[in-house]
Write a structure and sequence with these properties.
By secondary structure, the protein is mainly alpha-helical. Helices cover 58% and strands 0% of the residues. The chain has one domain (1-73). It contains 2 helices and no strands.
């Protein structure tokens, strides 16, 4: 039995392989694990990014603290 390499496109017409239509759970699993591995590799190289909502929340907190210090205290 051949091992699946997530870097290669899955072979669709292998003998003994069932076709399940547009959603194949095995292929979906391999795609998801490949995405996770790629993301971990990017993060280890330092290519991670902070989500926009986290940056917006931090900015709102800084502005609220600034307004609190200037006008309330």
């Amino acid at each position: 039995m051949r091992q699946h390499d997530p870097r290669q496109a899955p072979a669709r017409d292998e003998p003994g392989r069932r076709r399940l239509g547009s959603f194949d759970p095995v292929d979906a699993y391999h795609r998801r694990t490949a995405k996770i591995r790629e993301e971990i590799a990017r993060n280890r190289r330092g290519e991670y990014t902070v989500p926009t909502w986290v940056l917006a929340l931090a900015l709102a907190g800084v502005i609220a603290l600034w307004v609190l210090v200037l006008f309330v205290l």
